[in-house]
Structures are given as structure tokens and as C-alpha cells.
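Problem 12. The chain below contains 447 residues. Write out its predicted structure in C-alpha cell notation.
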Amino acid sequence: MRIRFLHTASFRLAAFYTAVFAVSVLVLGVSVLAVTERALREQIVQYSRSDIASINDGYVKEGVHEAREVTLQRMAGNRHTDFILLQQNGRPLAGNLPAMAEREGAVEIANPSAPGAIILGAGARLGPGLYAFSGSDLGPVAAVRQRILGLLLWLFAAVLPLAALGAFIVSRGFVRRMDAITRTCRAIMAGNLRDRIPSRGSEDELDRLAAVINAMLDRIAALMENLRQVSSDVAHDLRTPLTHLRQRLERARAESHSPQDYAAALDAAIASSDEMLSLFAALLRIAQIEGGARRAGFGPVDLAALLKRLRDVYGAVAEDAGHHLAVADAAPCLVKGDAELLFQLLANLVENALVHTPPGTAVCVTLQAEEDSAVIRVEDDGPGVPAEARDKIFQRFYRLDASRSRPGHGLGLALVAAVAELHGGTVAVSNRAAARGLSLAVFLPRA
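Solution.
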């Protein structure tokens, strides 16, 4: 049977850190053992050299006899060493060791009273034929070594089960949270777009992942709803022109009697077809913009230069329509984007104001550079938009009742919203502070 948590990334990570910890404990233990053993050995040698120094002082002051007396005193007193020897010409003069080979410095010799034991000490030649040695059995050092090794074994015995338990707890929690994500994704795949991944509020990696996935799901749900709305609106808006086209064709078949009648009917059918093709072209353009295909070609764009171009293109158009278009001069203001799309955004805003306001309306376009964003405002003193319709005018095919008699499909402001979103910006709508008029503001991040 496959145990799930043993195959999770969290368990493998916990097991890896357990192994690292175990190796660290091993290295630390070996280091402590080596340092402790070295310190004990150095202490034994130091005490041994202290004994030899005392014996040497006696010899220097009063000769061999005093050196022997000091040796006997060191044997009888409370000493830090276990063994001491004073010999002359290979014969022991005092001490508890038999005669030995004369070696100077730190010396290790076999313990004659305990086979297999080792005595560590120091030896020195004090004078002609006179040699002294002092040392201690290494048994206590071995005992300390054994205690440290035993402690290391206990640490391993305690740490490994605790680490395994911790890995199990962490992995089980990880598996539960991943199961919640999996269940939510499966529910969404089954068609329930309202489900969202639960968050524990710990702001850890899984919480951040859940937040990103939930935001993605919100976006997908919005796109699905938008697609549903677009499909419905397309079907609704196409029904009327298709019905008119069919009626014209039927009338032409029934009533046309001359080539001129047939030509007129064909012209009307072509005009209706062109109207439907323009509708689909506008929808495809919005879909292309929302898909982000143009983002790869983004570069620096000066909005002030676009406003000058807008004034040149639409100044005469506004005048012919009986409107007053004022485009304020502005200092250079750079954003990162697509110049043609941004000009299309400005053009749609101005055309929207020119088409949906009565003659004599003043339209003002301004550019303001704020700390982090560039703000483009298109304001007019026309009739404005009812408060209940402000959130709808950026939807595809939405048109106010007063605008249904005018040409168009209600896609101009939808394209404005799509271009602004593509550039990381937003669009806000409000009635002007004055009694009449509408204000549309586009916020774009500065480059």
C-alpha cells in the first residue's frame, strides 16, 4: 500500500534536514570528543611537567638527595598524577615505576601493573645519569570518551524518532492542504466556478499560492461571464440586422422587376453585411487586446505627443459636428505601451463625447502627470450618464436608451477599458462637479 505522505515534497525536505541535523550532531560530537580528549591529555602532561620541575628544583639546590626527597614528598602528597619515577644510571631511586628507557618530552608507556593500559606523562634528564618521569593512567580519558560516545548514541536515538514524527506531522498538514486545493480544482473542472481554495491566514507559501489561484479563478469566472454575455449580446444584436437583410432579400425577390431594382436590393444587402462585418471586426480587436498579444511590442510612448496628434485629427471633425474640442497642452509624459492602441483609446473617448452629446457641447481633454501615474481626462458639459449606468457603459454592446437611434454597436468604451487594462491602467467615470457633463479618466502607470 502506498503511504502518501512518504512521497510528498515536505516529507522529503524534512527527511533531508533530519539527515543534515544527524550529520551535524555527528560532526559536533566527534569535534567535542577530539577537543575534550586533547584537553585532558594536555592537562596530564602539564601536571607531569609540574612534578618534574619540582624535582629539578630540588636537584639544582641540593643535589640528588634533595631530588629524591622531593620525589618521595610528591608521592606522599595529594597529586594530580598517578605515577612518578626518579632513576640514576638506570637504577630507580624513588617512585612507583620500574626503571625505564630515558625519553624526554611527552611520553606514553605501558602500565606495568595493568596489562593493556597506557600511561601518559612527561620525562626529562635532570643531570648526568639522572632521569625523572611523571604521568597518569589514560583510563579516565577513555571513560570520558565512552561517556561522550554514549551521549551521542542517545542523541541519535532521541532525535531520529522526533524528526520522523515532525516530518509526518508536517507532511500530513501539507497533504491536507494540497487535497483542499485539488478538491477545489476538480469542483471547478466539474463546472462550479464559485468554489475557492480556503486560506488559513498564515501567509505562508501555500496561502500565497491559494491567493494567486483564487485571483486567477476570479479572472476566469469574469471572463466566462463576459463570454456568456458577449455571446448573448452578439446573438441579440445580430438578430435585427439579419432579419432586415432577409426581409430586403425576400422583398427584392418578390417586388424587383428591373436590373435597377435588383442592384438597389444588392446594395442594401451589402451595406447590412458590412455593418455585421464591422461588428465582428470590433469584437476580434477587443479579444486580441484582452489576449495581450500586443504587449510584446511595448515601448516608451509620450502621451503629450498623442494629445497633439488627437487635436490635429479631431479638431476639424468636432467643429463640423458643432462641438468645441479643447486639447490642453501638456509637458512630455512617458508611459510604456503601444502608441497606436493608446491613440485609439483617446480617439474612442473623444468620438464617444462627440457622438453622444448634442451640438454646442464643449469637450475638454487634459493630461496630468502624477507621482506614479499619468491621468488623461476627457470631460464634456453634455447631459452626462445616470448613476445606475456608470458601471455598465464599459460593457460590450451596452447603450443608453437615448443612444440606440445613433449608429454604432456599443463597443467603443469596451475597447477603451480593454486597452487601459492591457497597459496596467484603469478607467473611472463620474459626472462633473458642475450641474451638467461627464468626466472619463484613464489612469496609466508612468514609465
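Discussion. The longest strand covers residues 118-127. Students who got a different answer should revisit the alignment rule from Section 12.3.
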